[in-house]
Amino acid sequence: MGKYENLGAFLRRQRTREVPLTFRDIEKITGVKLPPKAQHQRAWWSNNPSNNVMTKVWLDAGFESAQVDMDARRLVFRRAVKASDASAGFAEAALKPYAAREGRHPARGALKGMVHIPPGVDLTEPADPAWADLVDRKYGPDVR
Questions:
Q1: Number of domains in the chain
Q2: Structure pTM?
Q3: Three-state SS across 20-84?
Q4: What share of the chain in percent tops pLDDT 70?
Q5: Which of 82, 106, 114, 120 has the CA that lies 20 to 30 A from 141?
């Protein structure tokens, strides 16, 4: 068991999309002091899996780091889901923002049933006949 595995276990138990933590909270969870680079270099908190051992722990737990505030010594771990079609080429599975269902935006279908088109309405017909006449005079009737 690695020294940061307690952080991974902690993140897996969370049920929210975002988990705000201070650097001190992370030290309490892991039981070890963060390295000096974590205290002073924003790049240490990047989501590059080859960055450091702790990065792999939070990525494996299904989270990515966000809103890193070096002055206030805090950050937010945001839940991420893997893209389903990462098998093309040499690319690894990319992380994408949390979605309700894999491959679909959470707002998809939100306006379903909001628009009603009465029978007999031709959506290709100009809404303003005067505009159609203007277009015919300027460009000819073949443009429509």
A1: 1
A2: 0.56
A3: EEEHHHHHHHHCCCCCHHHHHCHHHHCCCCCCCHHHHHHHHCCEEEEEEECCCCEEEEEEEEECC
A4: 81
A5: 120
Question: For residue 73, is it within any domain?
Answer: yes
8 touches 26 (CB < 8 A): no
Q: Give domain status of residue 65, yes or no.
A: yes
| pLDDT at 55 (0 to 100) | 92
Give every CB contact of residue 65 below 8 A, 6+ residues apart in sequence.
45, 46, 47, 55, 58, 75, 76, 77, 78
Give the separation between CA 139 and CA 27, rounded to whole angstroms.
Answer: 72
Candidates 13, 24, 19; CA nearest to 98 is: 19
Does the pLDDT of residue 57 top 70, yes or no? yes
96/11 Cα distance (integer angstroms) = 17
Boundaries of domain holding 68: 5-97
